[in-house]
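Researcher: Structure prediction, please.
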Amino acid sequence: MKSDVSADNLFSHRRNSCQSLKFKKLSEPLPSDREVIARFTASELPEGQRLLTTDRTYREFGKLKINILMPAVVYKGVAIPLCRKFPGESDSGKKGNSDTGERIELMTRFIRLFGVGRIGALCADREFIGSERFGWLRSQGIRIFIRIRENQYITDSAGVAEQGSVLFRDLKSGESRILRGRRKIGDVSVSVSGMKLPDGEFLIVASFDNPGIAPETYAERWQIETMSACLKTRGFGFEDTHLTDLRRIDRLPGIVSVASVWAYLIGDQLNETAPIHIKKR
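Model: Predicted structure follows.
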């Protein structure tokens, strides 16, 4: 009997069937896939302590509005996200910061997966401050270098609470100062250092120790901005997805993290054999 199905049509049909099967497998529920991907991604990086940084990003996927909270490890100029959480309700349209309980929950998950000994220090921006969170981080033995707002109240040398900008108001552009002794932010005692930036803003950083290295250590937080750009417009096009199911969107950061680690490690190897010339700006 003569078949009316050509070889090309048969191949196309089988290929589409395989793609459909793969997509079906990806869409099936895997309770532990977050942890599996996180452990696998971490295993691809060299052993040892890592600087940890956190970021919260707001995304709109069609009508779906979500916040994604991600801690990431800093590695050679980029931050690799290992865990993630969608704070609040996915369809609430909430653009605000994740609350302290959600941040602590995510950090607890990271510690359970990798151990607190893997965290060299935590760097975070102004939205991640708070007495409760500072106290929890101290109880876990986690060093911090966290930027605080200019209007955050900090005790002066006499124990009187003043806004941070007041304590550093006499600094000139580029100058920095470490406040003597321990200072209170809420109920937590910390070291505080500050610098006046060229745009007139103050970079004020709270730490539990080593305030002398606080500004440059905090600056490593910007590696997560590099990662964010790679995930979006400079590489993986994370925001271009047409997915709207939160369970499927939840898989994207993990998959992209694995791909970005591989790409970065390959670049490392290529750079060792033929160093990449970096243009000066």
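Model: The radius of gyration is 23 Å.
Researcher: Thanks, that helps.
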